[in-house]
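Researcher: Go.
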Amino acid sequence: MRLYNRTPRPPSIPLSLVRRGRILDLPVYWLLRSSDLAREGLDHSGSFRFADHIYRGQPSGRTPFGTWLDALRLSLPAAQAFRFRYLAARDEIVSFVAEHVRTAANMSLDILSAPCGIPRELADAAEALADRGISLEGLRFHGLDLDSDALHEASAFATERGLHPFTLHRGDALDRASYPAHVDFITSTGLAEFLEDDELGRLLGVFYDVLAPSGVLITSGMQRRRFSDYLLQLAEIPTHYRSAEDLIRIAGAWPFRDVSTRSDPNGIQTILRARK
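Model: Structure:
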């Protein structure tokens, strides 16, 4: 059985490059490994730690050159676009909660990240809400992931950042039984890119069922760019590219309303927002 939110584990990349006759890529591969970001991406096919490294935006490496290379990679349009989806998720949570405070009689909201990895968008949204003087009482945060290491790190991160209450759910993202009964907001960035169209349609159907009436979904899609595609192929990260129109078409199989999209300034990452 295929599990849909477990990070792909690549075979030996150097051996694979040799088998595919891409000998000239070997020096690039070894050079990239001095960067912590590149090494995590190469060794673990874009894991949750890889994503969070970009979200944090703090360069590091095994050597001063590796740290410089890390900083260079973080400044590239592809990395900036990648970070855009985290910022978009954070800001959408803040807007959703602020709107609820203005229009609802009571504050009782469940907010879910799936797959959660390290739930930085949840913690940073909670911090931004507190900075705006919005009480967090009545907010309940949830993280769903299949990776037990991700859940362990998510729990430690939530404790460190004071994200409470934060409930963990271990399971496959396409299994409705993995989720809480209902939530009011779902952020799911970085998973759709690993799914075929029919799988993404099924995932959006699960999200639709999980969302409470008037609940909001935020998800992402990625468009092909030559250099970023080269790096993804080098790391053997299977990626499905989609335009904004593709995301809207797939979401159209479910009766979402107020469906809209927006993209980062470089047009690489697309954010889809849909209300139940």
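Model: The longest strand covers residues 211-222.
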